[in-house]
Design a protein that fits this description.
It contains 14 helices and 19 strands. The protein has 467 residues and is of the alpha/beta class. α4 (138-149) runs parallel beside α5 (169-182) and α5 packs across α8 (220-237). The relative contact order is 0.18.
């Protein structure tokens, strides 16, 4: 471990400021900042200096929605905690919050312990956990209190996937009531899974088996209806609500209405909904299966409303829902039956670059880029200002970012453990050059210099928007 590191000459961008400043790092934390060229900055001394002239100096990304090694549809997500966190680092993300899974008939503790075992000693970057609650009962509700106390402060429920993760309205209400008391945050997969299953059955009976029908049966109205229902259940419970992977403009409208009413309701979207569409799902020769995820990709006209939601703060966070399955041998399980295609896309490595492209394209500002990708997810899930910003006392999770470098996204060059890229051939401007995690170089001038086991588990406080 190097004693002190100095980053000189870059444009430091946080959610609130842009300043040409030098950053001094000591013992894995940010010790001081000073405007470049000032006597204070000139007085900084360090064993190692990184020249960031002409580059951005930004906080490491916080991806609050990943699924490493997730069991789904008879297989497992193809990224392990080792490969997935390494890929995250390559993409400028220095913290992930993954989902531990409670299986029906088992306790929350068993699920959490299993995920700790998967991750411990394997991660290149820091990590935390949310808890998927699949089986609401009196014991589960008691366990939620205990988990909040030890830093697992968010709980995901599903209105989709009957027979797997699904909770009915009564179970959802009970969990929301509990979170209203213990300070936890309920995260909701908002799709009407009961209705969707009927439409799936009817589509298959008509011989509609191709991947594109995945998007057609998971209707935008059923996402909006579930979003509305989740909001009203949370209102009844007096609880906050965070709706994950919002993809439909009708769902954004429900969130906007709730926020206009002053309700503590938050929304997340993902790069796939901002950059991809049902055109991808309709690609021939079963190629569309690569783009099967839930909520599904929507027609292109939804994208403008998602960008608008990010600008107006009706959507606050962009996470990836990174849940990769290889095309060969995994996505192919659904040949002849779209309902058997494992749901999920790779993206943990692409998020920061795609959102920088959105800056280049004029969708969002530079500071909003950092806000939705670093600062807000850190605040939402109780990690700020340790994570998500560049300020004295914060962890030295810092990315030196070249805003002018051009790249072409491709499975040939990415580091995720999956045999295709959802963004194959996409040209983007901007690229990660060097990544520090708690002051240690994980990526050094486009070379991986990190190691499995550097990343540590990060307990979280409760949502910082509710205090």
């Amino acid at each position: 471990m190097v004693g002190r590191t100095l980053i000189r000459g870059g444009l430091v961008i946080t959610a609130s400021d842009e300043i040409h400043a030098d950053v001094l790092i000591e013992d894995g934390r940010i010790a001081a900042l000073a405007a470049s060229g000032t006597p204070a900055a000139e007085a900084f001394a360090a064993e190692r200096t990184i020249d960031a002239t002409g580059k951005y100096v930004i906080p490491g990304g916080v991806d609050a929605h990943t699924h490493m090694e997730l069991p789904f549809g008879g297989t497992f997500a193809s990224d392990t905690f080792e490969t997935g966190t390494r890929a995250a680092a390559w993409g400028g993300t220095t913290t992930i919050v993954d989902f531990a899974v409670q299986s029906v008939g088992h306790s929350l503790r068993e699920g959490l312990d299993a995920w700790h075992a998967k991750a411990e000693g394997n991660c290149a970057i820091d990590y935390g956990f949310h808890m998927i609650v699949s089986d609401v009962n009196q014991e589960t509700l008691k366990e939620m209190d205990l988990l909040v106390e030890e830093g697992v402060t968010s709980f995901k429920q599903f209105m989709a996937y009957p027979g797997v993760f699904y909770s009915d309205d009564g179970q959802i209400l009970r969990a929301m009531q509990r979170s209203a008391e213990n300070g936890g945050l309920i995260m909701m997969h908002a799709e009407n899974g009961i209705a969707i299953d009927v439409l799936v059955e009817q589509a298959l009976a008509r011989g509609e088996t191709d991947p594109r029908y995945h998007g057609e049966v998971r209707k935008a109205l059923l996402e909006a209806e579930a979003t509305h229902r989740a909001i009203r259940l949370a209102q009844v419970a007096g609880a906050p609500l965070y709706v994950v992977h919002v993809s439909a403009m009708e769902a954004v409208a429900e969130l906007a209405r709730a926020r206009d009413e002053g309700l503590p309701v938050f929304g997340e979207t993902c790069p796939q909904y901002l950059f991809l569409s049902t055109d991808n799902l309709a690609e021939p020769d079963f190629e569309g299966s690569k783009y099967v995820c839930s909520t599904p990709l929507r027609p292109k006209e939804h994208q403008a409303k998602l960008w608008q939601g990010l600008r107006t703060n009706d959507l606050q966070v962009v996470s990836t829902d990174h849940c990769p399955f290889c095309f060969v041998g995994q996505k192919e399980l659904g040949r002849g039956d779209f309902s058997k295609i494992p749901n999920g896309l790779p993206g943990v490595e692409n998020r920061m670059d795609l959102l920088h492209q959105a800056v280049v394209d004029g969708h969002i500002s530079r500071r909003r880029w950092i806000e939705i990708a670093c600062a807000t997810p850190a605040r939402m899930f109780g990690m700020y200002p340790k994570k998500g910003t560049i300020a004295p006392g914060a962890d030295a999770d810092i990315v030196i970012y070249d805003p002018h470098a051009e790249q072409v996204m491709s499975a040939e060059t990415h580091h995720m453990n999956v045999d295709y890229s959802a963004y194959e051939g996409k040209r983007t401007t901007g690229r990660v050059e060097t990544v520090l995690s708690r002051g240690e170089a994980v990526i050094t001038e486009r070379e991986y210099t990190g190691r499995a086991g550097h990343g540590v588990y990060t307990p979280r406080s409760t949502c910082q928007y509710l205090n």
